[in-house]
Amino acid sequence: DTAVSQTPKYLVTQMGNDKSIKCEQNLGHDTMYWYKQDSKKFLKIMFSYNNKELIINETVPNRFSPKSPDKAHLNLHINSLELGDSAVYFCASSQDYTGTEAFFGQGTRLTVV
Amino acid sequence: DQQVKQNSPSLSVQEGRISILNCDYTNSMFDYFLWYKKYPAEGPTFLISISSIKDKNEDGRFTVFLNKSAKHLSLHIVPSQPGDSAVYFCAASSGGTNAGKSTFGDGTTLTVKP
Fold first, then answer.
1. What pLDDT, in 10s, does the model give residues A5-40?
2. What is the DSSP string of B12-74?
């Protein structure tokens, strides 16, 4: 039973397209996150939602828009994809927003061509 | 500004020996530290954490040491096993409005040779 699942696992798309990555957690956690792992392997937080409310919004282009329909889901929509958006995107969840351990999904490798 | 650094990109040890992975941080507001382990094509998995009020936390073969004055933490794995071969990330977070915003290091690839 997968705790944090994200789909798709791989996504190849052309520049200028709009795409979405879905994430669901079945752990009953209140907080969910999106992280980006770039080519230098750094994991950087992009967004965090707590009970469907946005609580962390790092310096991310407006083309990235997270949506949390309920606390078990946090989707990431990306408009007008650019080459530099190519990365691995990880969804994660934690029991609350106090910085305790996060449970990560398997990642979505996005390649923009 | 890289606030969490893992200066050794890779580490190779023999099975049964100790593995020591190091992490340095610059932000004195960090008060909670975590180690994650990551296998290829998988997401990071939480390993062990330590609060700034402690200087050591142990869980089985894994021990994390925190030296606040030096802004340094280390993860000791003993004895090391081939299954421990993975990328290890240290992460740090602070309280208040930044709670939950973990800042990650860039990882150390550990290889444990049989």
1. 999 999 999 999 999 999 999 999 999 999 999 887
2. EEETTS-EEEEEEE--TT--EEEEEEE-TTS--EEEEEEETT-SEEEETTEEEEEETTTTEEE
Comparing C-alpha atoms, which of A106, A30, A14 is closest to residue A74? A30
Query: What integer is the mean pLDDT of A47-75?
Result: 90
CATH number at residue A10: 2.60.40.10
What one-letter code names the amino acid at B66?
L
> Taking the domain B4-96+103-113, which CATH number applies?
2.60.40.10
Q: Do B45 and A56 touch (CB under 8 A)?
A: no
What average pLDDT does chain B have? 93
- Provide the domain count of chain A: 1
Q: Which residue numbers of A have CB closer than 8 Å to B's CBs?
A: 4, 31, 33, 40-45, 48, 50, 55-56, 58, 90, 92, 94, 96-107
